[in-house]
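Field log, afternoon session.

UNIT: design team B
ACTIVITY: writing a sequence onto a fixed backbone
BACKBONE:
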């Protein structure tokens, strides 16, 4: 009798664990599908906004500097949603946008020398 009860408890516990695990995998699938839909939507908007050479340049940029390419994509999508784009952007137009974005995100590097004041032997030799 104890073995039957123990087996029933094990089956019940296993069913609970599987249902919890199944729910988390469903959540993960939902998140993956949402990301995929968002990516497809972004790509369709960019396909409408950019011509073929500009899309090629943007994809090359994404390979080298993904964060900069993402910023440019967001900028283009925002402009498209606001209706600020008059037509398809050519490669030269994309280059202009890239220059604007790089100027905005450009990091200024400065080097500062902290000179320590040490007793120079030259000052003592003057005596």
């Amino acid at each position: 009798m104890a073995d039957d009860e123990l087996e029933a408890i094990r089956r019940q516990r296993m069913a609970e664990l599987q249902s919890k695990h199944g729910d988390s995998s469903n959540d993960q699938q939902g998140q993956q599908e949402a990301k995929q839909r968002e990516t497809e939507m972004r790509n369709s908007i960019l396909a409408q906004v950019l011509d073929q050479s500009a899309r090629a340049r943007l994809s090359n940029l994404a390979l080298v500097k993904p964060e900069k390419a993402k910023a440019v994509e967001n900028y283009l999508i925002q402009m498209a949603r606001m209706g600020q784009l008059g037509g398809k952007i050519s490669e030269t137009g994309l280059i202009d946008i890239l220059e604007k974005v790089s100027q905005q995100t450009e990091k200024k590097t400065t080097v500062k020398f902290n000179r320590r004041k040490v007793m120079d032997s030259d000052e003592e030799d003057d005596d």
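LOG NOTE: The chain has a mean pLDDT of 81.
NEXT ACTIVITY: expression trials, pending approval
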